[in-house]
Write a structure and sequence with these properties.
654 residues, alpha+beta
Length: 654
C-alpha cells in the first residue's frame, strides 16, 4: 500500500462528518468502516489496516468534543479573563477573544466580546472584566445564513457578549504579545512610507492585517483570481522559507539552516495570527526539514496529509471552513493534477505544427518559451492550483473567477519580488526610514501594476460566473471529474480511449447535475426568516420572490446567489414606503419584473421611478395587480387576493 496516510486522513474525515451530521447512525458507519478496513487488507495485505478504523473513532470523538459548548443559555454575569486576540468588525466594533472561567460552570471557556466604538478598547494580553449577558452561539436559520456556532466553535469560542461595562487590568508580556507589538511597529513603517491604499495591501500580504484593506480593491483582486495573495498562505510561507534558507545556506550547513528557518517561520506564524493556511504551510515545512535531517525523500501528498491530520485532530471543525478547504484543496490539486495537465499540454503542443522561424523575432522568447519543460511545469502547477479550487469557490461563494489562471500567470513573475522586498522594507524601516523609502518604490509600482491588471480583468465579459453552490452531490461530482481527469491522463497507452470515454461520461453527469440543481423540475418553496418574510418560489429557470421590504434583503440576495439565480420576479405584498428606497435599490439589479398592488398605483409608481433613476427603465417591468389575478410568471403560478391598505394575500398553486 502506497501512502497509507492518505487512507488514514480519509477515515478521519469520515469520522468527523459522521460525528457532526449523523451521530445517531454512528454504529452503522463504524461497522461499515471496519468492513472497508477488511476489504483494504485483502486488497493490499497491509497489516496495520485496523489503525484506519481508529482514525474514524478519533474523528468522531474530537468533533463531539468540539461541538460541546459550556454556554447553552443566556447568562447575566461578570466575566474575567485574558485577551487572546483582537480585531475589528466591518461595523467598527472591536472584537476580542477572552479566555477565563465560566461564572457558573467553572469550566475554562473562550468568549468573543464585541466592544462598541465609544467603549474602552482592550489590548492583547490584557486582563479584563466584561459585564453583560453571555449569549450562546446560534445556528443558521436560513439556507444561506451565517452559522455563528460552526464558525466560532472552530475557533474554540463558547459564547459571545456585548459588554455593558469594561474594566481593564495589567498586560502580560507573553511571547505572542511581544510578536504582535513587533508586527505593529512594522505596520507603522508601511503606513509612513506608502500611500494608504498600497500600505493596506502590503500589510495584508506580509502581516496578515486586513483592517485597512479597501473592499473595492479586494473585490477586484477576487475577480482577477489573485485574492489569495492578500492572505498569508502556503505560497507566502514557501517563498519566504526558500529565500531565508538560501540566505542562511551561505553561512551554515543545510540542515542547520533549515532548522533555523523553521524556527523563524514558527515565530512568523504566531506574529501574523496563526491562520490555518500559515499553520499548514509551516507544518509542511517542518516535514521537509525533518526529511532532510533523516535523509528521507520528501513527498508532497504525504506531507500535506500529515499537516491536515494534525490540524483536524486539533480542531475537527476546520474541515467545514472555506479557508481550510481552499488551502488544502490547492495543494492536493497540485500534487494530483500537475502531472496529467503537463502530459496534456505536451501532447497538445506536440500535435501542433512547429512555428516558422522560431527564435528569430524579438518576441519569440515570450511566444515560444512555453516549449521548455520548466515553463510547462510552472504553467501546469498554476492551472492545477486554480482549477482544483473552482469547486470550493462554487460551493461556498456561489461563483468562480473565470480568468483566474491568466490572472495568476500575470502576477507570477513578481510575487516573489514583492513578498521578499516587502519583508525587507518593513525590517529596514525599523532602522533607517530613508533606505526603506528607497526600496519601497518597487513595492509601490508592483502594487499599482496589480491594481491596473485587476481593473482590466474585471472589465472582461464573464469575469465572474455565478454558478450557485452549497450542493454536496454536485460538489462531489466535481471532485470525481478532477480525479477522473487525473486517471485519464495518467498516460497515453492502449486503454487511453476507454478511460477517455469514462471521463466524458463523468463530465456529462456533472453538467446534468448542475443544470438540474439550478433549474428544478418541481416547484420549490423556500421561506427565509427575515423581517421581510421573503418566500422564494423556483421551478425550471423561473424564480418568483414574494415578500415586503421590511429587512432581510442581504439574506435574500445570498440565497439567490446560492441557487445561481441571476434575475427574478418580485411580488411585494405591501406597497413600498419612502423609507424603503434604499432597500429597493439594493435588490433591483437582480429583478426583471416587479408586481405591486394596484390600490396605491400613483404614489407607488412615483416611488418606483425615483428608485429606478440609475437603471434603464426598460430592463425592469412594473405590473400593478388586481384582485383575482392568477398566473404571474411563466413557470410559477400564484393567485392574488387584495386586502385593505394595498396589501396582498397570495395562494401558491403547485
Amino acid at each position: 500500500m502506497t501512502r497509507p496516510i492518505l487512507f488514514a486522513l480519509g477515515f478521519l474525515i469520515l469520522g468527523i462528518v459522521v460525528g457532526n451530521a449523523a451521530a445517531d447512525f454512528f454504529a452503522f458507519f463504524f461497522i461499515a468502516a471496519v468492513f472497508v478496513c477488511a476489504f483494504l487488507y485483502r486488497m493490499f495485505r497491509y497489516t496495520p489496516v485496523i489503525i484506519f478504523a481508529l482514525f474514524f473513532l478519533v474523528g468522531a470523538w474530537r468533533v463531539e468534543h468540539s461541538l460541546f459548548s459550556h454556554t447553552i443559555a443566556e447568562t447575566e454575569a461578570a466575566f474575567t479573563g485574558i485577551v487572546l486576540d483582537t480585531g475589528y468588525t466591518a461595523g467598527g466594533n472591536q472584537r476580542a477573544v477572552i479566555r477565563g472561567e465560566h461564572p457558573q460552570t467553572g469550566g475554562r471557556v473562550r468568549v468573543m466580546a464585541y466592544i462598541r466604538p465609544h467603549q474602552r478598547h482592550v489590548s492583547l494580553g490584557q486582563e479584563v472584566t466584561v459585564t453583560g449577558e453571555l449569549l450562546p452561539l446560534t445556528r443558521a436559520v436560513n439556507p444561506e445564513g451565517y452559522d455563528q456556532f460552526q464558525h466560532l466553535r472552530s475557533q474554540k469560542i463558547d459564547a459571545t457578549i456585548w459588554p455593558q461595562s469594561i474594566q481593564t487590568g495589567e498586560t502580560r508580556r507573553t511571547l505572542t504579545v511581544m510578536l504582535r507589538q513587533f508586527r505593529d511597529r512594522i505596520a507603522a513603517v508601511y503606513d509612513t512610507i506608502l500611500p494608504a491604499r498600497e500600505s493596506a495591501v502590503i500589510k495584508s500580504m506580509v502581516l496578515g492585517d486586513r483592517l485597512d484593506l479597501d473592499r473595492d480593491l479586494a473585490d477586484l483582486y477576487r475577480v482577477m483570481g489573485i485574492f489569495h495573495i492578500l492572505s498569508i498562505s502556503g505560497l507566502h510561507v514557501t517563498i519566504l522559507m526558500v529565500a531565508a534558507n538560501k540566505l542562511l545556506s551561505l553561512f551554515l550547513e543545510e540542515r542547520r539552516a533549515g532548522l533555523i528557518v523553521l524556527t523563524i517561520m514558527l515565530l512568523y506564524c504566531l506574529m501574523t495570527g496563526a491562520a490555518v493556511a500559515t499553520v499548514r504551510a509551516v507544518t509542511m515545512g517542518g516535514v521537509l526539514v525533518g526529511a532532510k535531517i533523516l535523509y528521507r525523500e520528501y513527498d508532497l501528498l504525504a506531507s500535506v496529509s500529515l499537516a491536515c491530520i494534525a490540524l483536524l485532530i486539533y480542531e475537527p471543525l476546520y474541515l467545514f471552513n472555506a479557508g481550510f478547504q481552499l488551502s488544502f484543496g490547492a495543494v492536493y490539486g497540485i500534487g494530483t493534477l500537475t502531472a496529467p495537465i503537463e502530459r496534456l499540454i505536451k501532447k497538445t503542443a506536440g500535435a501542433l505544427p512547429p512555428p516558422p522561424h522560431k527564435g528569430t523575432g524579438p518576441l519569440d522568447p515570450i511566444l515560444f518559451g512555453i516549449s521548455s519543460n520548466a515553463s510547462i511545469k510552472s504553467l501546469s502547477v498554476g492551472i492545477a492550483a486554480v482549477v482544483s479550487t473552482y469547486i470550493i469557490f462554487a460551493f461556498h461563494f456561489y461563483e468562480i473567477p473565470l480568468y483566474s489562471v491568466l490572472g495568476n500567470l500575470v502576477i507570477a513573475p513578481t510575487v516573489t519580488i514583492i513578498l521578499v522586498l516587502g519583508v525587507i522594507v518593513g525590517l529596514v524601516g525599523l532602522v533607517s526610514m530613508p533606505v526603506a523609502e528607497l526600496l519601497a518604490g518597487a513595492v509601490y509600482f508592483i502594487l499599482r501594476f496589480y491594481e491596473a491588471a485587476a481593473i482590466f480583468f474585471s472589465g472582461l465579459p464573464f469575469a465572474m460566473i455565478r454558478t450557485g453552490g452549497g450542493n454536496v452531490i454536485v460538489s462531489a461530482l466535481g471532485v470525481l471529474v478532477l480525479c477522473m481527469f487525473a486517471y485519464t491522463f495518467h498516460g497515453f497507452g492502449q486503454n487511453f480511449r476507454n478511460r477517455m470515454k469514462v471521463f466524458a461520461v463523468t463530465v456529462l453527469v456533472l453538467v446534468v447535475a448542475v443544470f438540474v440543481n439550478a433549474n428544478p423540475f418541481s416547484l420549490q418553496v423556500t421561506s427565509l426568516y427575515t423581517h421581510g418574510n421573503y418566500m422564494v418560489l423556483r421551478r425550471a429557470n423561473d424564480t418568483l420572490v414574494i415578500g415586503a421590504l421590511h429587512g432581510g434583503e442581504a439574506e435574500l440576495l445570498r440565497y439567490l446567489d446560492k441557487r445561481g439565480t441571476n434575475r427574478a420576479a418580485l411580488l411585494l405584498t405591501h406597497p413600498p414606503r419612502p423609507t424603503d428606497t434604499e432597500r429597493l435599490a439594493r435588490i433591483l439589479p437582480r429583478i426583471h419584473t416587479i408586481y405591486l398592488p394596484a390600490h396605491a398605483e400613483g404614489v407607488t409608481e412615483s416611488l418606483m421611478h425615483a428608485t429606478l433613476h440609475e437603471l434603464p427603465l426598460d430592463e425592469i417591468r412594473i405590473v400593478f395587480l388586481q384582485d383575482g389575478d392568477k398566473r404571474i410568471t411563466r413557470d410559477v403560478s400564484v393567485q392574488v387576493s387584495a386586502l385593505p391598505m394595498g396589501q396582498f394575500h397570495v395562494n401558491i398553486h403547485k
